[in-house]
Amino acid sequence: MQLTHYNTTFKKQQFSITIICENVTNAPNIGSLFRTADAFGVEKIIFCGSKIPLGRKMTKTSRTTEKFIKYQERETVEEVIIELKKSNYSILALEITDNSKPIHTFNVPTKKPIAIVIGDENFGISNTALKQTDAIIHIDMFGQNSSMNVVQATTVALYEITKQLR
């Protein structure tokens, strides 16, 4: 018998994980990020940039999870990273670069809260933000394309990170 969210036996758990979104502005992606954050017990989402669409188009895909996940809107990603570093966060960037490490080989810090920086749907994470992070991780891919939708990539990363934290 198929189970619903009313009768699953999943144990609720929250992790000290914050998602930092740098210029993620697609409303359906933002709604999906709320669902993903809820599914993986993420503590908070911080949206950086201007014109973050948190209206009806977003709630269509969030399915009310925006009511359960704390979130903030901030102007710049750089100031958020500086603040979180002062609060002893380990800052990880989810991006493919010439020095990024495959996420499945990366040992996630287990003694510190974690912030995952994700980037603009078209341009990724800015070089300025990348330079501020403690590590850059990527997801190995095996097809023709070298990129993945920001929400899909975040979901894969959260799966691996929470697997290591459990």
How would you describe this protein?
The protein is α/β, with parallel strands linked by helices. It has a single domain, classed as SPOUT methyltransferase, trefoil knot domain (Alpha/beta knot), CATH 3.40.1280.10. It is 31% helix and 22% strand. It has 5 helices and 7 strands. A 7-stranded parallel β-sheet has the order 3-2-1-6-4-7-5, sandwiched between helices. Strand 2, helix 2 and strand 3 form a beta-alpha-beta unit. It is globular. The model has no long low-confidence stretch (mean pLDDT 95).
Q: Give the terminus-to-terminus CA distance.
A: 28 Å
Q: Under the CATH scheme, which class?
A: Alpha Beta
CATH topology: Alpha/beta knot
Enumerate the strands of the largest sheet in spatial order, edge to edge or round the barrel.
3-2-1-6-4-7-5
Radius of gyration: 15 Å
CATH homology-level superfamily: SPOUT methyltransferase, trefoil knot domain
The total domain count is 1
Named at the architecture level, the CATH assignment is 3-Layer(aba) Sandwich
**Into which percentage range does the β-strand content fall?**
15-25%
Helix content bin: 25-40%
Mean of pLDDT: 95
Which class of secondary structure composition applies to the elements?
A: alpha/beta
Shape: globular
Report low-confidence residues grouped into runs of 5 or more.
Answer: none
Number of separate strands: 7
List the defining traits of the structure above.
single chain, 166 residues, alpha/beta, Alpha/beta knot, seven-stranded parallel sheet, 5 helices
Could you give the topology of this structure?
Blueprint: E1 15-22, H1 27-39, E2 42-48, H2 56-62, E3 70-74, H3 77-86, E4 90-94, E5 101-102, E6 114-118, H4 127-132, E7 135-138, H5 150-165
Parallel strand pairs: 1-2, 1-6, 2-3, 4-6, 4-7, 5-7
Helix pairs in contact: 1-2, 1-5
